[in-house]
Amino acid sequence: MARISSYPRDLDVVDQDSWIGTSVPGLQTRNFTAAAVAKYLNIKGKISISAQMVFKFTDNIPPTNGQFSGPADGSNLAAITTVQISGVDVSGQDTVPFMDYLVGNNILISEQNAISNFGHYTIDSYTLNGAVYTLNLTNLFGNGVLDLDKFYDFAVFTLSSQGAPTFVFDQAAPATVWNIQHNLGKFPSVSVVNNNDIVINGEVTYIDNNNVQLNFSAGFSGKAYLN
Asked: Is the dihedral of CA 172, 178, 181, 187 positive or negative?
């Protein structure tokens, strides 16, 4: 065989390019395509990306290591409110402490090699049962559906426009109690004005991270600004 240095260099790697190597077990000589190597690195989480975990979507209940389940195959990613996730991702990382830290923050769940299949969520809470935890989610946006046996990246994700989002609530009919679902994933500050743009003060009750109730001494209509 000629020296490797005698072969011309190919700087344009494509999926079907291949390398000769040794397969384990058996120690047999095989060729490996660039596409197969890239897939291995992706699904095994061998390339570390900060704040990203990888799980395979399965119908196992409960999921085992490296898996997540709960929604039915073909579920719309924009409609998911709960998922069950193993406490260990495909690379063997213990993810529970990190997910605990992320409660109240946003994550992106996206199919590997299909970026347009994704869901953007706020993690409202989670419950841990043995090595499996259930995430309770509020959907912010999504596109596409879940596909059984595909691999998905779970990553911390906040749009730059979400740095200080403002939710505007319009109370059309006069009322003393305003119930507002804002889906901001936090306890926001609240400012209220009537139809003449005069600031009105009332009692603010935070129901949870995504709902608030405003109580006033007299009924009126106007707008509430939450951020």
From this structure: positive
